[in-house]
Specification:
Layout: E1 6-14, E2 17-26, E3 31-36, H1 45-53, E4 59-69, E5 77-79, H2 81-98, H3 106-110, E6 116-118, H4 125-176, H5 179-193, H6 203-215, H7 219-237, H8 243-263, H9 267-287
Parallel strand pairs: 3-4
Antiparallel strand pairs: 1-2, 2-4, 5-6
Length: 291
């Protein structure tokens, strides 16, 4: 089992450029991939989505690709000489017009907008993709490790709650077997208190107890609930992502316990049903984060 939440980061270098990729994932019912790429590499979005889809089957994954150029050198600094000359002539003409000495220093020119800047070297898709793919693979691998670790914690919690539910089912099964006999005794007691005692083999009493036993019979629900526990464990042991299957199975689980609660006509069984549904609700919270 894997969690749907996690984070991974990877880096790769090519031709003095460092590419970093960060993948952060949160829970969603379906797979959603959001990709943030440099503008000139927008056409790589589908390639990135394909890589993510091969690793992740459920959840929202945000992928951020960043380009970090090497430290500036003489070759990477751009000087707009034409613009600098225009600034100089304009400042010189202004000095003459104002009749002041044209004390123009180089530092004054280079501080003006657009004179100095970093050379912008466009990166082609063919040049960038191998490095981005390498960094993305590393980020997805780290993401998978974190999701697996959190998934192990989810599974441990779910299995502990399944054991509690199994114990509750055993208690319900044992108590349910005594309910018809208890109802028979209570019915005879009420009749005696009302001054209408009936023998144990009276047809009316037997018929009433039989109808009561049929109405309160929860053996089928117990069997299906026990089957759901086995199926739940089978999904947990499977290699394929089972989040959606577990979510559906939980709905069936709740249905069985709801039916038991409405049919049981016994306070102790009703209490066990409420406790089991509480455990199922906690399992549901965990499953909502399972891939």
């Amino acid at each position: 089992m894997k969690s749907m939440t996690g984070f991974g980061r990877g880096e790769a270098q090519r031709a003095g450029v460092t590419w970093s990729v960060e993948c952060s994932a949160v829970n969603r019912k379906q797979l959603e991939v959001a990709v943030n790429l440099p503008r000139e590499l927008a056409e790589l979005e589908n390639a990135v989505r394909t890589e993510v889809s091969a690793t992740v089957s459920r959840g929202r994954v945000n992928v951020a690709v960043r380009k970090e150029a090497a430290a500036a050198t003489a070759d990477t600094v751009r000087v707009d000489q034409a613009l600098a000359a225009q600034y100089f002539h304009a400042m010189h003409a202004l000095a003459l017009k104002l009749d002041i000495p044209p004390q123009i220093a180089l530092a004054d020119i280079t501080r003006l907008p657009g004179v100095l800047g970093m050379a912008q070297t466009e990166t082609t898709v063919e040049e960038a993709w191998p490095a981005i793919q390498e960094a993305l693979t590393a980020a997805l691998k780290q993401l998978a490790v974190m999701r697996a670790a959190e998934g192990a914690s989810l599974r441990a919690d779910i299995e502990a709650r399944l054991r509690t539910i199994e114990a509750l089912l055993e208690s319900i099964r044992a108590k349910a077997a005594t309910v018809p006999e208890y109802q028979r005794k209570m019915l005879r007691q009420r009749l005696e208190e009302a001054g209408m005692p009936l023998p144990l083999d009276d047809e009316r009493l037997v018929k009433e107890i039989a109808l009561f036993a049929d109405r309160t019979d929860i053996s089928e629900e117990q069997s299906r609930a026990a089957s759901h526990v086995k199926q739940f464990r089978a999904y947990l042991d499977a290699d394929a992502p089972a989040g959606r299957s577990l979510d559906f199975l939980l709905q069936e689980f709740f249905r069985e316990f709801n039916t038991m609660g409405s049919k049981c006509n016994n306070a102790e069984i009703a209490h066990h049903v409420v406790t089991a549904k509480t455990e199922l609700e906690k399992i549901r919270e965990q499953v909502q984060n399972a891939e």
